[in-house]
Write a structure and sequence with these properties.
homodimer; Rossmann fold; 2 domains; globular; Nucleoside_phosphorylase_sf (chains A, B)
Chain lengths: ~300, ~300
């Protein structure tokens, strides 16, 4: 670590401070996950992987990879001949922010980013099913509510943000490709809620803390009747895509000679149901092993199908 | 992974889902850091470590350790004969929330938790100095502000929360012990600001996104003139300590036969200045190697000095 510039720290090689990548190592089409183990599993679907000689839980030898000292793992190769990257980012809105900003800083031209995550289901989607949210809102603990003074008598203990939308073409393509891999009856559409805690802001009951979250599920459905999933990252991806500019793009770098959008990032997401919050069921290891690679292939198919 | 109960998932062994620890593996006195490499460095100060035969970047053989599949590292041993743990949690408010809640769930009796982090300095504290914040507030991007509709004409782009206080005895003890290790003129007191982004919510300028954060430093100082540091986790620790209950404690488990507090967690924090935001300076590797172990010893001294 020998960083310069506290405004946007990079090392002497040009690697960003947290994700640890530099220009040339990341494709414009990115699949992002939380768990590094999932990234390694999905990398087995990339071109040229010698599956017989690639032990499970190892990164295929023909691919570029970089594990940063702060827990990010980047793997770059091609899928059906098109350059793609997989980036594992860990958990939470702050980690998604690191990932989007540090990747944007080292890639030229427009980007497509699709998240493949896990989630809790508030709808009828069962464990092992896939949800593709067209939009996402943020569930934040209203920390001030818990300060113990009288200012907040009328405030609510959780703040629910406005909905930010996924790219409609990416969402449509994901639904189509997920259905092809897993069957129509295992693929769901709706809206995602991203929470700043796995516990209080997802309505989990924990007597060890004052959480005031008994009515949270009801409030989520009142806020957005089509609320389908709860997880911890997707909102930030959709939000940053919508607030991305075209600042880093020279006009010559934009495909077809002109920008189709004021944003340089187009984003979508899908998630596997790990927890069914209405029935309290949790996914089995066997279901994860079965669904994860198929869902990954559907994301790669979508990443290379959508035009930049 | 074979979890039960979507409300508070634990595996068949009783390990929590993300931090991965179970009852009996964690001490009531915990030093928490972000970077696993820092946890391993600090573990060298624990009792019975054979420094000659413990290579750098390895966990001493006499200590318990557990690395979870989601990036948490727990190391437990003793310091001056008192059981202590070190837990590396990664980055961001959501990761601090995982850590506090999953640790609280598997430890009986009252807990002391002290964070040793890194930060940016908004004050005169120089790179390599230590700051010990008596309180912390949260800087959150006001996501709704960026929705592009007219609802938010009067809203500000960032929300600054109320201040939550550290445990005063822990703070006082930390200042004393840090000064003994590093000298009075390298130890600072003040208030911390915890941000939900390393970039926009810490006032970093990035043309790739619409951030509206040019005036953020001014607003922080107006909100709290004694704002000293910016980082990404401490607020959540102070907040959860203040909202912790005594629910998990049987009366017999409380020291002296009675509870001194309505909270089961007492918390403090200190941070090394890595970035000087006024001069744009960044810490050198040599300064980290020099300061980190001394700061760690001062935290351990404080953890075992304060009565549970």
């Amino acid at each position: 670590m020998s960083m310069t510039n506290a405004n946007f720290p990079m090392d002497a090689e040009g690697r960003t401070y947290h994700v640890g990548i530099k220009r040339g190592e990341l494709a414009n089409r990115v699949l992002t996950v939380g768990d590094p183990a999932r990234a390694i599993t999905l990398a087995r679907s990339l071109d040229g992987v010698d599956l017989e000689n690639t032990p499970a839980k190892t990164i295929p030898a023909n691919l570029f990879s970089y594990a940063s000292h702060r827990g990010f793992l980047t793997i770059t190769g091609t899928y059906k001949g098109v350059p793609v990257s997989i980036v594992a980012i860990g958990m939470g809105i702050s980690m998604m922010d690191f990932f989007v900003r540090e990747c944007r800083a080292v890639v030229d031209g427009p980007m497509l980013i699709i998240r493949l995550g896990s989630c809790g289901s508030l709808s009828d989607a069962a464990v092992g099913d896939i949800c593709v949210p067209s939009g996402s809102y943020l569930v934040q603990r209203n920390y001030d509510f818990f300060a113990g003074d009288s200012d907040n008598a009328s405030a609510k203990p959780y703040h629910l943000s406005k909905i930010f939308q996924a790219d409609p073409e990416i969402t449509k393509t994901l639904v189509k490709n997920m259905s092809a891999k897993l069957g129509d009856n295992h693929v769901w559409s709706g809206v995602n809620a991203t929470a700043d805690s796995f516990y209080s802001s997802q309505g989990r009951q924990d007597l060890n803390f004052v959480d005031a979250n008994q009515d949270l599920f009801t409030e989520l459905v009142e806020h957005e009747p089509n609320t389908m999933t709860l997880e911890m990252e997707t909102f930030t991806l959709y939000h940053l895509a919508k607030t991305s500019t075209t600042a880093p793009l020279g006009q010559s770098q934009v495909s077809n000679g002109e920008s189709k959008s004021k944003n340089s990032i187009r984003a979508g997401a899908c998630m596997m149901v790990f927890a069914q919050r209405k029935t309290n069921a949790f996914i089995t290891k066997e279901d994860v092993v079965r669904v994860e690679p198929l869902a990954g292939q559907a994301v790669f198919d979508s990443l290379v199908e959508v035009q930049l």
